[in-house]
């Protein structure tokens, strides 16, 4: 069996901080993706450029994106911090940012000609700022009088304190936050427009593709691309920004290269990973393949740049975010006249990544084979010299692929797979291990998945991808932690199953 020590290591460093920030943003955005998809469908069908223009139903487009989406994002963020109470205060607070932004734009438009007036700025970023600010401050205020309220007055104090603080936060949202967000959105929009006008937008892949591999993509995607893309889609009916991170082409190109030119376990697991990544939209499954040979990130960048360039040339975009980043979700959100360009961008980005990855894998194949097979070959030669197979030698070969085991006396009953959002890759891993337990006849073990930010210390065993283990340890320090390269097919699953089986056998 292989586990890590229950002791937690201190999580730190810039990467961990950005991951944690991105996880919080993801926690606000991801649960509300269905609302964004619904808005995208309404936009795709009912705006004047849509499939079935409808003047009456088109009136839904503006209120949903301008009011509903920021409010539910703020409410979600508030509940993450301080449950329902934090969510309610956050929802109140973001209305101040919405109203303040509208007031500022109205003041500017009063001095502009009708054909050059500014459009509304939708408070996605305002919601992401106001939610934690309102919820954390409400939580802190409640702690000041916790246990000091006379019996019978609890409800009165709770209701009025939240209402009064909500009023204060509305005013804060109306003035400093609305000014800040309007200025920030103008700067970001200007920067994106400059990149588009100068044909430099493909250069964003130099940042986005490595960020994805190191699990930093949520901060970029949910913090910048989704708000800006939604703003563009509200004005133009579509946005290319939704395709910068969600394009499944580079990932599937890398996995196809491993399928044909990889070696060992990586080659064996690549075909299944390609299906899951391309059709299921779980991009995390290809990250370990890139991390095992970081030079492959160059292939991902080239593929990403190819996809962005193709979409720029064809003027294509999506009407709403494609989440998860599956080819099905991408085509489902494609603007009605843009299918050719979007499909070509996926195909060409996959092809470029595949070709460059193939060249890299073939160039290093002999060296990789030597690393992969040297110890196994030595064991086989020893057995040949001995004239018969040996359980001890076979055990050595098996143990070469895994770190030393660390035994635990803790009874394993609650296993949690944790990832950034707690939905895609962790759900897949939980399903795989659940089936392993079932086939092994092991009962009494609950296997679930959740976001790292939601770990509460109750899990007996936490399984994460290697890049995220430090954060999981900091969040749940008393749990046993297991790191895996790939949620889809890790040899450590068998070791976990064997560890639990041995526990049950000992107890019997």
Question: Can you tell me about this structure?
Answer:
- With 508 residues, this protein is mainly alpha-helical.
- It is 66% helix and 4% strand.
- Strands 2-1-3-4 form a four-stranded parallel β-sheet, with helices on both faces.
- α18 links the parallel β3 and β4 (480-484).
- The longest helix has 49 residues, at 61-109.
Features:
single chain, 19 helices, 4-stranded parallel β-sheet, 508 residues, 4 strands, disordered N terminus
Which parts are unreliable, with pLDDT below 50 for 5 consecutive residues or more?
1-11, 388-407
* Arithmetic mean of pLDDT: 83
Q: What oligomeric arrangement do these chains adopt?
A: single chain
- Distance from N terminus to C terminus (CA atoms, Å) equals 19 Å
What class, by secondary structure content? Answer: mainly alpha
Q: What share of residues are in beta strands?
A: under 5%
Number of strand elements: 4
Described by strand count, sense and barrel closure, the largest sheet is:
4 strands, parallel
Strand order in the largest sheet: 2-1-3-4
What's the shape? flat
Query: What's the order of the H and E elements?
Result: HHHHHHHHHHHHHHHHEHEEHEH
How helix-rich are the residues, as a percent range?
A: 55-70%
What Rg is obtained from the alpha carbons, in whole angstroms?
A: 26 Å
């Amino acid at each position: 069996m292989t586990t890590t020590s229950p002791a937690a290591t201190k999580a730190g460093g810039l990467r961990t901080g950005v991951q944690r920030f991105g996880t919080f943003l993801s926690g606000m955005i991801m649960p509300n993706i269905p609302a964004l998809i619904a808005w995208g469908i309404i936009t795709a069908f009912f705006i004047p450029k849509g499939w079935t223009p409808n003047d009456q139903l088109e009136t839904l487009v503006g209120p949903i994106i301008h009011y509903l989406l920021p409010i539910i994002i703020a409410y979600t963020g508030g509940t993450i911090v301080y449950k329902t109470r934090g969510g309610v205060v956050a929802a109140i607070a973001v209305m101040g940012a919405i109203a303040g932004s509208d007031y500022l734009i109205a003041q500017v438009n009063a001095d502009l000609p009708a054909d050059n007036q500014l459009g509304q700025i939708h408070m996605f970023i305002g919601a992401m700022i106001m939610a934690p600010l309102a919820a954390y401050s409400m939580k802190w205020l409640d702690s000041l009088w916790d246990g000091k309220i006379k019996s019978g007055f609890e409800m009165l104090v709770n209701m009025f304190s939240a209402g009064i603080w909500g009023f204060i936060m509305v005013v804060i949202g109306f003035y400093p936050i609305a000014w800040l967000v309007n200025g920030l959105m103008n700067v970001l929009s200007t920067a994106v427009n400059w990149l588009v006008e100068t044909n430099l937008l493909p250069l964003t892949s130099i940042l986005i593709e490595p960020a994805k591999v190191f699990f930093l993509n949520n901060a970029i995607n949910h913090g910048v691309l989704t708000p800006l893309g939604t703003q563009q889609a509200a004005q133009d009916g579509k946005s290319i920004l939704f395709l910068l991170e969600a394009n499944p082409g580079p990932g599937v190109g890398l996995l196809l290269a491993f399928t044909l030119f990889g070696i060992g376990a990586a080659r064996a697991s690549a075909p299944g990973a390609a299906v899951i990544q391309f059709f299921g939209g779980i991009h995390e499954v290809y990250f370990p393949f890139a991390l095992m040979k970081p030079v492959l990130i160059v292939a991902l960048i080239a593929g990403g740049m190819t996809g962005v360039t193709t979409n720029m040339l064809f003027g294509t975009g999506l009407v709403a975010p494609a989440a998860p980043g599956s080819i099905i979700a991408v085509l489902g959100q494609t603007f009605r006249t843009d299918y050719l360009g979007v499909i070509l961008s996926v195909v060409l980005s996959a092809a470029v990544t595949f070709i460059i990855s193939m060249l890299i894998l073939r160039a290093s194949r002999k060296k990789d084979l030597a690393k992969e097979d040297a110890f196994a070959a030595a064991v086989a030669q020893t057995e040949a010299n001995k004239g018969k197979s040996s359980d001890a030698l076979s055990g050595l070969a098996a143990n070469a692929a895994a770190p030393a085991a660390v035994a635990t006396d803790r009874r394993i009953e609650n296993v949690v797979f944790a990832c950034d959002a707690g939905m895609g890759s962790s759900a897949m891993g939980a399903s795989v291990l659940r089936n392993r337990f079932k086939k092994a006849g092991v009962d009494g073990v609950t296997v679930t998945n959740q976001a790292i930010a939601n770990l509460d210390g109750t899990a007996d065993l936490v399984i994460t991808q290697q890049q995220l283990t430090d954060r999981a340890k900091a969040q749940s320090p008393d749990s046993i932690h297991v790191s895996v390269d790939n949620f889809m097919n890790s040899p450590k699953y068998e070791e976990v199953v064997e560890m639990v089986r041995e526990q049950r056998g000992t107890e019997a």
